[in-house]
Amino acid sequence: MSTPVLSTTLNDFGHRPAGALQVLDVGGYTFEAGGALPQVEIAYETWGRLNAAGDNAVLVAHALTGDSHVAATEADPSTGWWEELVGPGRPLDTDRWFVIAPAMVGGCYGSTGPASPDPDGRPWGSRFPFVTIRDTVCLEERLLRALGVTRLHAVIGGSMGGARSLEWAATFPDWVDGVGVFACGAASTAEQIAFGQAQVQAIENDPDFAGGDYYDGAAPLQGLALARRIAHITYRSEYELGVRFGREAQPGEEPLGWAQRRRGRYQVESYLDHQAKKLISRFDPNAYLVVAEALISHDVGRGRGGVAQALAGVSAKPLLVAVDSDRLYLPSQSEELARLIPGENTVHMISSPIGHDGFLTSAQQLGTEIREVLRL
Ligand SMILES: CC(=O)SCCNC(=O)CCNC(=O)[C@H](O)C(C)(C)COP(=O)(O)OP(=O)(O)OC[C@H]1O[C@@H](n2cnc3c(N)ncnc32)[C@H](O)[C@@H]1OP(=O)(O)O
Ligand SMILES: N[C@@H](CCO)C(=O)O
User: Fold this and answer.
1) Interface confidence (ipTM) of the complex
2) Enzyme class, one word (predicted)?
């Protein structure tokens, strides 16, 4: 029987090849929920060229544990998470569009986050401010203006990337021509908050959490691993897990009976262990808390008279996409967006047995709609 061993040594989270990222200092910032940073750096990658008018930009917003590496670049030729969407002749045609993908503030992929040094050189840790989705787009707007972007032809993203896109369209209606919101709704629902809270608790209750100031010692990676297991179950459908793993035992293991007080695993348990292990090799637990709380906070109607009023102010052409088997971000939430954003809107359905992660695994299904609806 194999026992899943998760190291508590903090990994080189967020590691990217040297030179893969461009980074811009966008200045000091006071966050929506309080707290401030004297300096915020936003890391990003780009594809294509910004035209002289600065109006051919398309922003791609990554999801919860994603990064700016949407597609291969010269500096980092490794395959990106939406590789099939970006490049010459692809839906985000880099012969025409200047595609930019910022890494979210508070994460661990190059932008200022909890592991970044304060002015005295100590990691921010527990002192890192609470970040909302609105904060992220305000900081990204500073980045784009500094780069000479005058209009966003479109902003697109799935899951938390969809929340970021929608917030862009609501916060800067005069600046955004098209908005792609995939597998996401207007605000995090009670159930999404509940799943998120369980993930937050998993990390904070790890004995190594140390209130968030663990950078000198062992990191709360067992907690992060549990958070990923909880999250990953919600990203896949009951059908997919059943068909793929059923009640099969992991080869070489016996789920009935103990060996050293631990039973062998079913295949699905081994699969979740693997997903957990992969995440803890690349992500900082504090950064996970920041992005998970940001997603929990997602509410496009906050301070705008509610969701209906906020969405009535969206002037960007919407591309609304849901995954038919998504049990986390239900297609009914996309239908609500279609009803409340002005215009005759329809929800485009990705057909996938996988569930929420379908917006990543079936990206090619998005391509046609991206071209047609957002006129890319
Ligand atoms: C390195 C970075 O910076 S990544 C940052 C950017 N990433 C993102 O933005 C998105 C995050 N990615 C994801 O969420 C996921 O990787 C997804 C959704 C894209 C993966 O979806 P899928 O392609 O469907 O992967 P799937 O769920 O089938 O998992 C496959 C893995 O499970 C493993 N697996 C399958 N069955 C088992 C089992 N019984 N026991 C153990 N492992 C198993 C496979 O070997 C495979 O391992 P690998 O990924 O190390 O090659
Ligand atoms: N599995 C993806 C999507 C979550 O919405 C991620 O980890 O970012």
Assistant:
1) 0.94
2) transferase
